[in-house]
Each structure stands twice: as C-alpha cells, then as structure tokens.
Write a structure and sequence with these properties.
Blueprint (H helix, E strand, L loop, with lengths): L1 H14 L10 E6 L19 H12 L3 E6 L7 H4 L4 E4 L9 H12 L4 E5 L16 H5 L2 E2 L9 E6 L12 E5 L5 E2 L7 E6 L13 E8 L2 E6 L5 H4 L2 H14 L11 H15 L5 H6 L4 H12 L1 H4 L6 H21 L2
Parallel strand pairs: 1-2, 1-3, 3-4, 4-11
Antiparallel strand pairs: 5-8, 6-7, 6-9, 9-10, 10-11
Helix pairs in contact: 1-2, 8-10
Amino acid sequence: MRLLLALVAIVFSLAAGAAGAAEAPIRVLYLDQSVGWRHRPVTRPAEDLAPSETAMIAIGKAGGAFETQVTQDAREITPERLKSVDVLVFYTTGALPISPQAWAAVQQRFAAGKLGFVGLHSAADTAWAYEGPGLDYTRFVGGQFAGHPWTEDQKVRVKAIDNHPLAAPWGRSVDLVEEIYQYKRFDPTAVRVIQSLDYAGTPLKRPYAVPVSWVRTVGNGRLFFTNLGHNEATWADPRFADQIVRAVRWTAWKARGDATPNPREQAIDQVRALLTYAGESDVEAKLARVQDEAWLLSIAGRIAALREVYPGKPEADRAKFEAAYGAVLAEVRAKTAS
C-alpha cells in the first residue's frame, strides 16, 4: 500500500509537467537483472513485478513521457529487439549474459543516436568480458563500483556541481539517506559530472571527491548515470521520478543539456573534498585563489588516487595512505594560502 500511495504521488507530481501529449511515447526497455547481489527495488515477489519495475511503468505513464517494457534477462537484448527500443535503462549487477553481437549492436545504435542509455545505482556494479568493437561496459558507462563506504542507512548530502537540467529536480543541494558508491576506472575527461557528494553535510568524509551522477556522449549517443536508487524511499521520491523522466527524454534527444566533459569543475571538487576532509576553514575562498589550471588538473589526479590507498581494516595500509595524503595536502595548502 505504501508503494501504491507513493506511485500515485509520483503520477500527480509529473502529470502537469511531462512532455506534450502530441509526441509519441519514448520506448524504454528496463533491465533489472542481478548476477550477484540483488537489491530490494529489483526483487520480484511471487508472481509480481519488482518495485522498481512497477515504478518505471508508472513514471512513464504519468504524463505519457515513455512506455516501459521490463525484463530480468539480458539475453532478451538482441540486435533485432533493439530496433524497437529508444532508451535502455539498466539497474543491474554482475556479469550480464549479453552476447558480443548484442553489445556491439547496442554501441552501434547508441553512437548513431538511435539509442539512449540510462544507468541507475548498481548499473556501475556491472561488467563482463568483452573484446569486440567499441568500448567494454565499464568504459561505456564511465566508472565501476569500488566499494560503498556510505551504506544504505547513512545520511549524505548531494550537491549539484553543474547547472544541468538533469540535476535540477534535486536543487542545488539535498540531504538523503542513500547508499553511495565510489568508483574505479573513472575518467574525468570523458564525462560531465553534474552531482557529487557534499562533505559539508555528509558525516562520513573521504579526502577525495565522489561523483553521484554524470552525463556523457559517444558519437551521437547520450548516456546518463546516477548512483541514486538503492533505497525504496528514493524510488518513492517525486524528485527521483522527475530525474528519470528528464534522463529518458534527454538520452532520446527530446531535451537539451550539455554533455561536454568538465574536468576542471571536477578538479575543483577534488580539492574541495580534500580541504573539507582536513577540516580547513574558508574552503571556497581558498578554492577561488587557484588560477593555475594545469596544476589544478594534475593535483586532482593525485587526490583521486588517494582512494586506492585509503586504509581499510589492515593497519599496514595506514602509513602508505598518510604519506600520500600528507604530501598532497601540504601542496594544496601552499597553493591556496592567502
């Protein structure tokens, strides 16, 4: 009943602002297969759809924005099936059983601007061996799961670092209870990050920035990824529904929004994360003093690399981390001093 009431709220919140009825609905194929860990929003009860499947169908119908078909079998993604799909939406885990021919077809249609892609939450905890033409899945999406220090019951603050229409539903900053991933194989020159963790309002801090959502293009194809969606409360939030509608429309070339990579803004966010973690005051004023863009991009890479040495349980890792962290922090402090 709670889910039903939430979906009704979503319908009413979106009905007035959805795309015009004159447009044919966008055809969405929603894949929520789990090969490994299975999240609650994609868990099907007996003889029923999973909560996120029900939500995707309702969100699309609310204002006629899109029509959703759902599947939990990646083998249904075939070159022939793709001809009747405008946008693929993944909420997946593990090594999906997608054939090399099918993944090559996905990329061909995507690069031609005939297929959009939306990744939700654990779509970044998905990868399989692929050596065919184009990109493997991780390089295509933009990053791969590398742990989630921010577990499902923790408060986090998510901020917009880009004035992008796909980040607009959440405003400039929002406090949530969500599970947040950090990423490996992440290339800041390939994506435009539009939301990230704000450590000023997140109790658990790290000395490196963590992107939450981004957009990118490959050829004429548009891709949107968001880490949000682990918790049922997020799926019941009209702002998340609004973001999904915007993402589907944007990836289907029905809406505007820049996808130019923003490595400089991401670099500033890296320095901001480091200084906030260190307990520095007047962080924004110190950031404003940085004028050397080459240095900024270089130090951002070194800050991001701190994730790889951040100590977990083995205490032997702490000395290695402290040395790297101390050297980077000293250089940043010198560069941002008044």
